[in-house]
Structure formats: C-alpha cells, structure tokens
C-alpha cells in the first residue's frame, strides 16, 4: 500500500514503512500548508482526535470553573503561604520570574515581527554545497530523502550529495544503492564498517565534502524544492554567518495524535522562537533535520567536536547543538531561514517521545555548561546581549527545575484540587498564544492541538528536565532500535 505525500508543488510516493524510531508512514493523505503559495491538501480526520480535543476543552473549562468555585480556598492558601517562613520569599521570586519571563516574551514578540527570511540569491551567486545524509536503520525513508534532495532547484554542478550508512542492520544500504542507481554521479554513498553513531557518520561526510557550505539532512526527512537554496543564501549576503537552521515541520502528522500535537509545537519552536533568536544572530541549535554550516567554521572546530567528551565519556548525543555552540563560540552568527522547509518524522508513541526529549534535554544541560564558559567573555564583535539573554533564559529553566518540581509535589499533596484547577486554567491562558500563532500561520482546526499538547506535556513529561539533569552524563541515543524491541 502506498501513500502520496504532497509538498508544495511536488509529489512524493512513500511506501508503508516503519523506521528505527518506530515511526510509521501510513496510507492517509495529509495536509502540508505552504504559506507562500497558499496551497492546502486536506488530511483525514480521526474520531479519536476529535474525542481528545473535546476532552481537552472540557478539562480546561472545568479547571476554570473550579478556580471560580474555589476562590475562597485560593485566597486562604495565599494568606497561609505569605505568612509562612518560606512563602513570602517564594512569592517575591515567583513575581520576579514572572516579570522576567513576560519581558522576554514581549521582546521575542518584537523580534519576531522584525524578522524576515533572506531571499534566495541567484544561481550564479550560490556557493558550492555538500549535503550529508547520515542514516541508521531508516529503510526506504532514506530513498525518499535522497530523491527529494536531488529534485532541489539547486544548480547540479554546485551540488554534492553524500549518504553515509552508519552500519545499519536493515535494508538501508539497499535503498541507498537503489538511489545511487537512479541518481548516478549526483550521489555518492558510503557504508561504515560498523555502527559508530551519527556524529561519526557526519564526521566522515565533513572530511569528504568539497563544498563551500555543508548541509546536514536527517535520513527520515523530506526537503522542499527550494529548501537548499534558501538555506545557503544567508552565507552569501552575510559574511559573519557561520550556520543556518532550517524550518522543521512534522511529516507524519496524519492520524497519530502525538505528531499532530508536535507539529503545532514545532511551528512555535521554529517559526516564533528561532525567528527571534535569528534577529539576535544567536540561534542556539541548528536542527539535524536540516542545517547548513560554513565550511571553514566546521573545520575550525571539527577536532574538538568529534573528540568532545562530558564527564570523561565520549559525547554521542547532541551533535547538532554542540556544532552550533562551537560556531557561536568562534564569534560567528547563527541564523534561521523560515523559508527553508523540511519535513521530518517524529515518534508516534509515548516511549519514543520521552526518550527523544531526554536526549534533547541532556544535550541542553551539557551545552549550557559549555556556553557558560564563553558567553560572558568578548567572544564576538558587536553586541553580545542577545546570546547572553538566551543563555540566561535557558539556564533559569534548568536551575529552577528542581525547586519548582518540589513546590509542585507539595502543592499536589496538600491541595490537589487547587493544583489541578489552577494548572488547567493556566494552560488555557498560556497556550492561547500558540493557538493564535498557528491559526494565523496555517489553519484554525489544527491550532487547538496546542492545548492538548500542553496538557499532555504538563502531566506526563514534566519529569524530563529534572531526570535529564541528574543523568546528563549518560550516553546513548535511546530511540535507536525501538522498533526492533516491539
């Protein structure tokens, strides 16, 4: 059985498949909105999804009603807290954090409205480009990735595509060979003798690549026809640009509920947050799904990057965040291109999702410690305020993870109904901005998944950051081989 994945004006046919992360490609047609062309493909609706959305609104409205009903209890709780030995200092801290976070949000909103992606330069001005695709147990998905790259409207004579099979145990190498047969000299494929990890596969590509710009694309991702040229154009117009992040959206957001939620979350994370970060020249992470790096910037930090360790152990996670950090440390700018779209697979089950988040959170902890070593020094010409603000904001989330976890557990133990009602009302208020943002950028119907995702994250993934902090030294990709264990 086959499905048609429609991306802008392109059609890609994808077989039903499951990759190493347990991601499945089903047969339903799904929607990918293109804000530039306005083209929309409808996707099939799910009865379960409708039930989840209705339940989401029922919970939030119930929470709001409970807050109204329990108002005297909330007043009494506030009085008791203020009169306690720890309550008043906690209140002052909470107010200070609220003011800081509100200020950061308003500042990000200001930066977002000022942001504009850099338009693609002409074919003559485009630099030579090496695209590196590392793959491990991706099966036929790597075929789809390589064909989408080859179909890019990037000058063929300036484009080198390298695919590295990192010792896969499935038919990934077969599909790379099939892609090689179809694409001929446009594609070069390599096979690692054994699985050494994504970082080592990328390292081989960096060593073999001849382009002025390196582009890394995950082997379960699909790029639009103009993604590559849009992704590398900033290097032409900005000589201080060292890296560029692509705009990641969810590919498998058809019937599975988690991808539907994550798609709204990704749009908020990339199109809002990274737009603001880009205005500061300090995007903190260039995603593995699609990112571009100036060749000289990569070679300057390549030995440090491949030999990176944490607490005496080789680093085998967070290769994208680490590369971004090391390029920022060189005083170069890291930008975001909203017009460089890439669609990638995300976990469809809770197990794969929380393991992916643990990996990301451990990387954040590690790289924040690394960033602390240079961000308050004279690492860059011009203003360093933006990078420092982003660092402080992210560090606060890590530092305060345990205090707020302890407060939450105490609140639940002593006033469970007050906690539940205030949390649900808080989600209704705070998540309304992502809903409005997504609805304005794409469509209203899918925007409501922001509410569901907030409830899901709050009650089932709140433990991720505290756990990642105490296990930051642990190695392992975590999501590799999940499908093999089923």
Automatic annotation (TrEMBL):
UniProt keyword terms in alphabetical order: Cell membrane, Glycosyltransferase, Membrane, Transferase, Transmembrane, Transmembrane helix
Places the protein is found: Cell membrane
Domain of life: Bacteria
Pfam families linked: Glyco_tranf_2_3 (PF13641)
UniProt xrefs under InterPro entries: Nucleotide-diphossugar_trans (IPR029044)
GO MF annotation, one: hyaluronan synthase activity
GO biological process: extracellular matrix assembly; hyaluronan biosynthetic process
TM helices/strands, residue ranges: 48-68, 88-110, 389-412, 418-438, 450-470
GO cellular component, as recorded: plasma membrane
Location, primary (coarse class): membrane
Protein name per its UniProtKB record: Glycosyltransferase family 2 protein
Species whose genome carries this gene: Flavobacterium cupreum
């Amino acid at each position: 059985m086959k499905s048609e994945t429609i991306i802008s004006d392109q059609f890609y046919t994808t077989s039903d498949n499951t990759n190493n992360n347990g991601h499945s490609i089903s047969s339903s047609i799904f929607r990918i909105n293109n804000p530039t062309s306005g083209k929309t493909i409808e996707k099939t609706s799910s009865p379960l999804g409708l039930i989840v959305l209705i339940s989401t609104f029922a919970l939030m409205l119930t929470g709001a009603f409970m807050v109204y009903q329990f108002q005297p209890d909330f007043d009494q709780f506030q009085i008791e807290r203020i009169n306690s030995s720890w309550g008043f200092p906690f209140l002052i801290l909470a107010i200070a954090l609220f003011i800081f976070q509100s200020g950061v949000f308003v500042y990000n909103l200001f930066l977002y409205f000022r942001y504009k992606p850099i338009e693609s330069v002409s074919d003559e001005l485009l630099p030579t480009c090496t695209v590196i695709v590392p793959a491990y147990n991706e099966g036929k998905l790597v075929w789809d990735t390589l064909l989408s790259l080859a179909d890019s409207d990037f000058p063929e004579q300036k484009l080198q595509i390298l695919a590295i099979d990192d010792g896969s145990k499935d038919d990934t190498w077969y599909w790379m060979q099939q892609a090689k047969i179809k694409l001929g000299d446009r594609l070069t494929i390599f096979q690692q003798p054994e699985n050494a990890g994504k970082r080592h596969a990328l390292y081989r590509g960096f060593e073999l690549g001849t382009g002025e710009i390196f582009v890394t694309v995950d082997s379960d991702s699909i790029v639009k026809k103009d993604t590559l040229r849009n992704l590398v154009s900033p290097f032409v117009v900005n000589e201080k640009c060292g890296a560029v992040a692509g705009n990641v959206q969810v590919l498998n957001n058809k019937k599975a509920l988690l991808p539907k939620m994550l798609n709204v979350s990704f749009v908020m994370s990339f199109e809002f947050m990274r737009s603001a970060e880009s205005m500061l020249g300090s995007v903190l992470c260039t995603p593995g799904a699609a990112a571009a790096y100036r060749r000289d910037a990569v070679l300057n930090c390549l030995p440090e990057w491949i030999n990176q360790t944490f607490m005496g152990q080789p680093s085998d996670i967070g290769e994208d965040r680490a590369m971004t950090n090391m390029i920022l440390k060189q005083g170069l700018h890291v930008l975001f291109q909203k017009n460089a779209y890439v669609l990638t697979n995300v976990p469809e089950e809770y197990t794969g999702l929380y393991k992916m988040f643990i990996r990301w959170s451990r990387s954040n902890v590690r790289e924040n410690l690394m960033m602390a070593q240079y961000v308050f020094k004279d690492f860059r010409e011009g203003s360093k305020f933006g990078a420092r603000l982003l660092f402080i904001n992210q560090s606060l989330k890590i530092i305060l993870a345990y205090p707020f976890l302890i407060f939450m557990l105490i609140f639940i133990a002593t006033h469970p109904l007050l906690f539940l009602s205030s949390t649900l009302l808080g989600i209704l208020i705070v998540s309304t901005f992502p809903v409005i943002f997504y609805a304005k950028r794409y469509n209203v119907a899918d925007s409501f998944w922001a509410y569901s995702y907030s409830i899901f994250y709050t009650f089932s993934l709140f433990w991720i950051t505290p756990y990642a902090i105490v296990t930051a030294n642990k190695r392992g990709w975590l999501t590799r081989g999940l499908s093999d264990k089923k």
